[in-house]
Design goal:
Length: about 450
């Protein structure tokens, strides 16, 4: 791999052990991927492996009476170093992704005292080294919006596909180690979606159905991911341009079922002014058609639940926008959840503050539901006690809830899910979801 003099100097220790180790990690990673060089990045979104519930066993023990040695934790879990390194401030603008809990809802989320302490320790460390604690899977909803062509080093598949496709920024799906190393040295291997060649379309998807609602956009994404796996689909024939909420759900679903990291929608996304623009001389590997039958096929993949007694509704995967929170507040306003059900909505902390200000939180909580931040059920493994049957408006969450938390899971529109929480019964479905949409006030999403 070709390194600049400055990169070589960092590798040789000119900026200390931790940055030398981070550079070495990136060089080894880049060589394994066939990258010829590194590229500068000033935009990193990463995660703390030790902060997630499933990885707590990896945390080094804390000697009695002492504070957790977070430099040792970061060395081991984020930089893969058995040797304790003194961690310097980050060089690149770095945002932290999802946490294991919402500190304001720890009791409701049933988070142990030990886990709460880990979250506080990680938070303190973030402050020390300069990592912004956005604690959301949607940094682009709260101000971290890269510019077109900007090289980034982001984890979180739903965020990666969004900034690659909708914004035209450039990132691969990084892991905790590569993102953490990138934060320290401001470099990432130049390969994959950083290159123009890697961003070219591979499959043409002809849309032959008026895909409109959030649910339909999610199902379209899920179907495409299942068909093209980790390639680059190019969509034509869109009837009406989707808004950012729909693209968020579409991308998250495509990344869940198939590992899609980038797509083009002709006439909508910035690198697809035409079909030729999107493929840029790349041969079309396959042409697929998406119509009503394919929409129904995608919905059928989620139709595994049998018990209609819904005891948990999850909304906000990826984290909900303010408009989505507003919709739920409207649907719940003046009503009460069924005593046998729960409804949790996840949104970034910054948007929760705005929802508090305009009264959405009050309407939601008055109904017995909870507006939460920093976490999500599937990844943070937080849920009410005794849950057996869930409902969600997110294909991504519906993909993960049965696999990770073993819940039977219904998929429907936001209205159908809220209705399930109000009645304790599932009565939704693909056919009826547009009728439900008619109940929503003008300006809402569906
Ligand atoms: Fe976000 Fe991933 Fe959870 S998209 S809501 S962190 S499953």
């Amino acid at each position: 791999m070709q390194l600049t003099d400055m990169e070589k100097a960092i590798l040789d220790g000119s900026e200390g052990d931790a940055r030398a180790h981070a550079m070495d990690l990136l060089v080894r990673y880049g060589k394994a991927l066939g990258a010829e060089r590194l590229v500068d990045t000033n935009n990193v979104c990463g995660g703390f492996v030790g902060a997630l519930p499933g990885r707590r066993d990896l945390l080094p023990p804390v000697p009695a009476g002492e504070e957790r040695d977070m430099d040792a934790v970061y060395s081991l879990l984020n930089l893969d170093s058995d040797r304790r390194l003194e961690i310097p401030p980050v060089k690149a603008m770095t945002y932290r992704l999802i946490d294991a809990m919402d500190p304001d809802k720890a009791e409701i989320q049933r988070v142990s005292a030990e886990s709460q302490q880990v979250s506080r320790d990680v938070g303190k460390f973030c402050g020390k080294v300069g990592i912004n604690q956005c604690n959301t899977c949607t940094p682009y909803q709260i101000g971290n919006v890269p510019v077109m062509g900007e090289h980034c080093a982001w984890m979180e598949s739903s965020a990666v596909i969004y900034i690659n496709s909708v914004i035209g920024a450039r990132t691969n799906v990084e892991g905790a180690h590569s993102a953490s190393a990138a934060a320290l040295v401001g470099k990432i291997p130049y390969w994959g979606y950083h290159t123009l060649e890697g961003r070219r379309g591979t499959h043409l998807i002809e849309i032959d159905y008026p895909v409109e609602s959030m649910l339909e956009w999610g199902l379209l994404g899920y179907w495409i991911g299942e068909k093209v796996k980790n390639e680059v689909p190019v969509l034509t024939g869109i009837h009406s341009p989707p808004n950012p909420n729909k693209l968020k759900h579409f991308g998250a679903a495509a990344a869940s079922s198939g590992g899609v990291e980038m797509y083009h929608i002709v006439g909508v996304t910035p690198e697809a002014r035409s079909i030729e623009d999107a493929f840029r001389d790349n041969p079309v590997k396959d042409k697929l058609r998406f119509g009503k039958a394919e929409l129904e096929e995608a919905y059928s993949w989620f139709s595994t639940a049998t018990d209609r007694d819904v005891d948990f509704v999850v909304i906000g995967c990826p984290h909900a926008s303010l408009e989505q929170v507003r919709l739920v507040a409207q649907l719940l306003d003046g009503k009460k959840l069924s005593p046998s059900s729960n409804l949790w909505i996840f949104t970034p902390k910054a948007l929760k503050a705005m929802a508090d200000r305009v009264g959405y939180t009050k309407a939601i909580e008055a109904a017995g539901a909870h507006l939460m931040s920093d976490s999500c059920s599937a990844l943070s493994k937080v849920y009410p006690e005794g849950v057996k049957v869930a409902a969600t408006d997110s294909c991504k969450q519906a993909h993960y809830l049965p696999a990770i938390l073993k819940f039977q899971t219904w998929l429907g529109s936001t209205e159908q899910c809220v209705n399930a929480a109000l009645t304790g019964k599932w009565s939704g479905g693909l056919e009826s979801h547009k009728d439900a949409g008619k109940l929503v006030a003008p300006g809402a999403l569906q």
